[in-house]
Every structure is written in C-alpha cells, then in structure tokens.
C-alpha cells in the first residue's frame, strides 16, 4: 500500500458499516492532528471460496465499480474535499490479513468495533479482535454511537 515515510500513515478499514464510517472520521481527525495521511482500505472476499464446494456467486467482481462505490461512500461520510485527501485501496483477501499488511509501518490502524456481518450483541467483531492482537502498530477500535 503506502511506503512514503515522510508523514505518518493512518490506516483505516472501511466495510460500509456505521462503525467503520465512525472509524474513518476518527482516522481523519487523528491524521489532521499528527500531520498524517489516511489510507482507507476496503477488502472483499467471495463467500464460499475456500469451502468444499465452488462459490455460489459470480466470480467477476468489478474492482473499478467497487472503487467508485467506495469513493462515493467516503464523499457521503466526509464531504468531497476531505474525501479527496484520503487514499483508497480496494483489496481482495481476508480482511484481517489485508489490514495487518497495510498497517505495517503505520502510525496507527483504525477499525470499527463491528463490521457488517457482526452479531448485534458482540462486543468486538472478529476482524477488530484479530488485528488488535496481531498488529505491529497501535490499534484504535472505534465503537459506533448506535451500539
């Protein structure tokens, strides 16, 4: 992802959940305080891909369309000017693994407390729990105000 070491990198996972949007806002505020840049990472993984049977979904994911959707979501959450300063990456893979790799050398990794597929009563989602235990940088877990 980013390799520029001249300014602190703030990596944030974005998955379309309210919690991830609040994590994104936190990351932008923090980056402003430390003079850093924000890298928003969206990860996609096809369900059933690693199971015993073939996937029951279309394997053709339009990455350009996904990138455009992410850009629109960032604009909706942050406003056009702020969203334009955020570096975005859409990556295929396991969310926790991708975020851990992206956060190598970062100032901080920011994630929401629960993603889109979390149980409503769970305190932490599986991705936020995993990255908090394995990241090579500090991790901030942002809890949604709706929880």
Task: Write structural notes for this entry.
With 147 residues, the protein is an alpha/beta fold. The chain has a 5-stranded parallel beta sheet, sandwiched between helices. Strand 4, helix 5 and strand 5 form a beta-alpha-beta unit. Helix 4 packs parallel to helix 5.
Task: Using brief descriptors, characterize the structure shown.
147 residues, 5-stranded parallel sheet, 5 helices
The count of DSSP E runs of length 2 or more, i.e. the number of strands, is: 5
Number of helices: 5
Alpha-beta classification: alpha/beta
Strand line-up of the largest beta sheet? 3-2-1-4-5
The end-to-end span amounts to 31 Å
Poorly predicted regions: 118-122
Into which percentage range does the β-strand content fall?
15-25%
**Main sheet summary:** 5 strands, parallel
Order of SSEs, N→C?
Answer: EHEHHEHEHE
Taking Cα atoms only, what radius of gyration do you get, to the nearest Å? Answer: 15 Å
Report the oligomer: single chain
* Helix content estimate: 25-40%
Overall body shape: globular
The average pLDDT score comes to 84
